[in-house]
Amino acid sequence: MYIAIILFIFVASLIYAHTRGKVHLKFSRQLFDHSTFLGPVNMFMTGFSKLPNKPFFDVSDFPELKPLQDNWEMIREEAISLQNKIKAAESNNDAGFNTFFKRGWKRFYLKWYQDTHPSAQELCPKTVALLEKIPSIKAAMFAELPSGSYLGKHRDPYAGSIRYHLGLTTPNSDACFIEVDDERYSWRDGEATLFDETYVHWAQNKADETRIILFCDIERPMKWQWAQNFNHWFGRKVMSAASSPNDENDQTGGINRVFKYLYAIHAKGRAIKEENRTKYYIYKWLLFSLIILIIALPAIIKHLL
């Protein structure tokens, strides 16, 4: 019975994630995507959400975020002053965005589902003070997309938040854009957008200038207070484990402390794939089966006894 429940939850999560929206990932990719494994949580978040199921939301419906737009030039000044501190992770300690770094994307964390990063308090005190006055902001960073960069189609794993982008220094051109479930938005200086990052989205900068934005995770508003409390708890206790540092003064969450070892396994897998694709897929499915077996092992032992 325990095994059947696990399989049912996994299949339901897979179907939920794969069919969400008009645009879908390849089924083979969705099968192992992190959005599949957080599917049960995401079904809860969207099922009890106050927001409609659509890619983009009206920023004016979130008046608490207005001070960010009102002060966008001040925020831009602090972002520009960081110079080369907006950068890729240096030691495979940012699991959530690891694949983006290979395509030129860079970031400087301000906060991540917990207290503000000490490096941000030191280097961006005005922006940090502004963010700390808005409780619904659970994570924030400066994100850079250089000219020529491209982020492929993907889903973010967690539906307990929605994504806010505020243009700081952008090409102000339709050649620099993000597309969410087949709806396109081009960044402009001082303008903001809100979207649901659990829909398939991708971004590209075909302009000659670099794009820098303020990137925030906003806690999804829920229909009832008990659901809001669970959302807040999950973000604080689980999502905070994905915290990544800007420098040695910042904390590294548990997920990212483990990630460097998982990345080494991933790198070995890529090497095997280049050498022999058949062997790679055999190993991949064996590993996946082993994970399912480990999860189901307590029930198997109980049944045998």
TrEMBL record:
Domain Aspartyl/asparaginy/proline hydroxylase: 70-221
UniProt keyword list: Dioxygenase, Membrane, Oxidoreductase, Transmembrane, Transmembrane helix
Keyword DNA damage in record: no
Superkingdom assignment: Bacteria
Keyword hit for Manganese: no
Gene3D superfamilies from the UniProt entry: B-lactam Antibiotic, Isopenicillin N Synthase, Chain
Transmembrane segments: 280-301
An MF annotation (GO) of this entry: dioxygenase activity
Protein family according to the UniProt entry: Belongs to the aspartyl/asparaginyl beta-hydroxylase family.
Protein name listed in UniProt: Aspartyl/asparaginy/proline hydroxylase domain-containing protein
